[in-house]
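User: Assemble these into one structure.

Assistant: Restating your components, then the assembled model:
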Amino acid sequence: MTRLAGRLAGLRGRGRKALCTFITAGDPDGTATVPAMHALVAGGADIIELGVPFSDPEADGPAVQAGSERALANGTTLHDVLSMVAAFRAGDADTPVVLMGYLNVFLKMGYEPFCRVAGEAGIDGVIVVNLPPEEAGDFKAALRSHDLDLVLLVAPTTTSERFRHIAGEASGFLYYVSYKGTTGAEHLDARAVGERLQAMRPALGDLPVLVGFGIKDGASAAAVARHADGVVVGSVLVNTMGSVSGAEIAGRLTAEVRDMRAALDAL
Amino acid sequence: MPDVNRPPYDAPDELGRYGDFGGRFVAETLMHALDELTRLYAAVSADPGFQATLKAELKSFVGRPTPLYRADRLTAHAGGARIYLKREDLNHTGAHKINNTVGQAMLAERMGKTRIIAETGAGQHGVATATVAARLGLQCQVYMGEEDIVRQRVNVYRMKLLGADVIPVSSGSKTLKDAMNEAMRDWVTHVDDTHYIIGSVAGPHPYPMLVRDFQSVIGEETKTQCLEAEGRLPDLLIACVGGGSNAMGLFYPFVDDDAVDMVGVEAGGEGLAHGRHAAPLNAGTPGVLHGSRTYVMDDADGQIVATHSISAGLDYPGVGPEHAYWKDMGRARYVSVTDSEALAAFRVLTREEGIMPALESSHAVAWGLAEAARRPDSDILVINLSGRGDKDIDTVAAIDRIEVGG
């Protein structure tokens, strides 16, 4: 069992909802990332999703776009991101780290070289926004050969037949996109999420499902987490990274994550 | 000699792949809409009623067929092969773009979508989309980079007059690629009631295929017209390539005619050696951008880089995946022409023939003039004059340091 799958199975065993927190690597600068990752864990994050900046983040809303632009402005590359994770691992051997990005950056490095270095750096899996399972064959094979998970996404528009197929292809967890739209929008409808996940429960088997997009605080996290194994929180944390001075980032992140943690633990 | 044993060209496959290129690299939310569009398109392709309506629209609303014009003074100027111009500039709205928007708007109607969106660079596709939206009474929003809005202000005003909202895009390089990002973000949010009319043979499957098919009327007419005028097919087809829709529209009907050569002309900007250009087929590498695997201009880390061209419509770091396929299999050759060469060709065609070409099309004219000079007068060249140059008056005037209209 991978570190990611093990962590999620452990949480489920203890009846605890998973809190996956997203920030972009290199945002606002390269020195901020590793301390921020530790701060997220200190606040109660179970999994860290680390954004790999890309010039054309076509599925992201303004907050994550801005984070990506800040990271690129200071020259953050995929190699830098991998080094940051290796540095994080020196202080935290247990928290799974999943990279989120767009395919071209991984493609450019090459699937096999990327997977080798990612495995060495202590990365646990990847989420590639613009890589549906139809196109994922080669990357998935390379990831699997290095015991890395390919987290796949399903959306409200995904047909039931396709949902079952994707659930069969995914590993680590299934990422349910809560609404039609880009990250960080105000379209969250927790009841609709619950109805869909309830209907699809038989297709999931033991695969955990985390819900992301539009979750911004303890209340929205709790509302959605009722229907899932956990939640992914991103834009609100990225906004913090971009708006708070360097010295204050860690404290603010920890406090924000702690609020969400408390709301989830109260379920 | 044609290889009689070779099966007819039949790309793409059912996954939308052209060899190693194409496919569907998009957010999961859009997959269902792309499946629906693929199914609908297959149905209407086999529907004589749809095809008859499309043909009638192209005739009565667009003004087709467009002439294949024998450019005698241009031929004399070049001093070699006979040059014909396929006059897509004479279409309603002044460019080939409307061939596609008429077809896609009919698809949108069939799907019951009440709103259409588009991205635009030069504004020609935006105008063509706003035009069909007005004609069908559909809501229309066009995404356009802030830099292009400055370069193409006449087209911006045309779109507004037609009732479309032009939404300025201020992210990234503020040009066509960023407009396309923003259109994808809109589509993913409003996928239920909105059809996204992609303007080129780019994007996820089925777009490269259906845009190619809608634009193929250019090549089909050219074939018939050339046979009528010359009793044979042309030796060489030349078209500019940004995303590549006018080129694919001209080339595709000739794909199995092995004796017909094809040259796609990319935007060389300030020259390929300087890096400031928009020529991914000449100087890019295979990558994934805007839904398909194709040649892209990116850096060592896979970040898409800023492009440059004097023509907003060619200022794009990717290219249609079928062109990538044809480049690799050698069915077409792809070259580049610089800003200043294109501008010189703009002036030559304007003065010699009284036809003012778009700066995009001027790239094809520039290569055609040089190529004609290298060939005997028994050869026949067809240059796709994909659009008219009225929209570029400001750009040319600025270079000439002339103030137009105060």
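Residues 5 and 256 of chain B are 12 Å apart (CA to CA).
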